[in-house]
Amino acid sequence: MTSLLETKGLRIYFSSPRGDVRVVEEVDLHVDQGEIVGLAGESGSGKSTLALGVMRLIGTPGRIAGGEIRFNGTDILALKPDEFRVQYRWSKLSMVFQGSMNGFTPVFTIGSQIQEVLKIHGHETSELAVRKLLQMVELDESIAVRYPHELSGGQKQRAFIAMALALDPQLLIADEPTTALDVITQAKIMNLLKRLRTEMGISILLITHDLALLSEAVDRLYIMYAGRVVEDGPSNSLFAKPKHPYTQGLISSTPTLKTEQIRGIPGFMPDLANPGEMCSFSLRCPFVMEVCKTERPRLGKVDGGEEVACWLY
Ligand SMILES: Nc1ncnc2c1ncn2[C@@H]1O[C@H](COP(=O)(O)OP(=O)(O)OP(=O)(O)O)[C@@H](O)[C@H]1O
Ligand SMILES: [Mg+2]
After folding, report:
1. 263-304 residue pLDDT tens
2. Which ligand is nearest to the CA of 45?
3. Rounded CA separation 225/43 (Å)
4. How far is the centre of ligand 2, averaged over its atoms, from the C-alpha of 291 (Å)?
5. Which domains does the chain have, with CATH numbers?
6. What is the pLDDT of residue 132?
7. Is 173 near ligand 1, meaning CB less than 6 Å away?
8. Which of 125, 42, 135, 121 is nearest to 86 (CA)?
9. What separation in Å is there between the alpha carbon of 102 and the centre of ligand 1?
10. Helix and strand element counts for the chain (H, E)
């Protein structure tokens, strides 16, 4: 079966005076039709960069340095920028950006900003179209005539999701859609995303560092560390029996999943301009062995449909 979204060996680098900073390195990931897939990892692991790469929104000093991105089998990196913009971005794959709830222009009403998106892409811009979109994200239609500052954080986030859904995309990438919201509002936004999948068949790539949130919502997930996927698999087996020491550390750093004392993972990520040949996690790993310091483990299949990149397996 062709995946809706598939990346193969994707690399995204930023040039710097110290050389290329390898923010995304050899990432293979796929999202199938109707799936909700999670992407997790601590701050700076490259999650947003990966998502922006998929939307072809990486600007200088960054670049896609290698690999493939396929959407429904089409190699979207081979398309001319205009072709991608007109045929794909926002219409087939769409994104709710990290911090997007602060992304509305303060001087225009929510309704007019949603209409603008529809207009730019040649869609019907009637008030009815806006009302339908607001309804889809469970917002009252009166929101249309309000200004961004008149909305709560949760309402703004919903309005932004409505805008991302305006062109009826097949894939929605939601980058930290609930950060900065209280837990109850977080849960409501997650329920909304799940409903979009069941009722509209939208596939979702959900990015967050909040594992508790992911454990409730996703079918499968990828764990990223220092630009690479270190573990992936079905969410139930991954949460029940995390294999990679990094995933284990992340889970025990999640307060809502374990009530015991939160451990955290001491140490820092390696220098992405100079990653060397070692396992990127070897500097922080409680189980580090000699081989980890000289040779990078590749992702390999283990029980339960999972893959893990670790010399322990
Ligand atoms: N324009 C840029 N120039 C140089 N480096 C960049 C640029 N944008 C991102 N990076 C680097 O890429 C790395 C990954 O950033 P990214 O925003 O993708 O992480 P993230 O996993 O989304 O983190 P968070 O959880 O904090 O959102 C960071 O170390 C950052 O310094
Ligand atoms: Mg991010």
Report:
1. 678 888 889 999 889 999 999 999 999 999 999 999 999 987
2. 1
3. 9
4. 31
5. 5-81+170-183+201-308 (3.40.50.300)
6. 92
7. no
8. 121
9. 19
10. 10, 12
